[in-house]
What does this fold into?
Amino acid sequence: MVAKAERARQMLEWCRAGHARMMQPPLPMSGDWMILWAGTLGLLRGSLYALKDVDAKRDPKIKAAQERWWAELGGKKGTSPPIFYSFIDNDRHQLLHMGEITAGQSFTANIYPGRIVIGNNRRMRPLPPNPAAPAKFNEIGYAMFGGHYQGHDPRNLVADAIAWIEQQLDQIEQDAA
It folds into this structure.
């Protein structure tokens, strides 16, 4: 029998579904965005908890491989790779345990003669007109607010995190074989 991280992979599929919804029009706005963001971020970290708490308990080979992997990663005191410690673990903790939003959405509307940007903090700030810019009537932007990935599009980080977790699961399953 081949050792498999079945529950962790199931949760990773849910992450893929969340990411796909983040990317497809109509793009989620405001409260819908936050619910989708929180759910997907929680599932990213949850997939690794499922590896430890479900898959490892079902299969001693997975358990041994998962424990070696966690020790090599650095356990709770690790700092690298940032995709895990700074994003998957820390941003999930900040949002789901402390209610601190680390990523958000902004909306830009072109209004003659200038533009107005409405961000997550619901403040409006006028921008100088840019006659050379093409006329876009609305534009939605996404960005991380701080930390290692400040300014990055959080949707891209979700895709990177999914790929990273999948690589880790592949390696753990291979080590358990």
Summary: The longest helix spans residues 30-58. The CA atoms of residues 74 and 80 lie 8 Å apart.
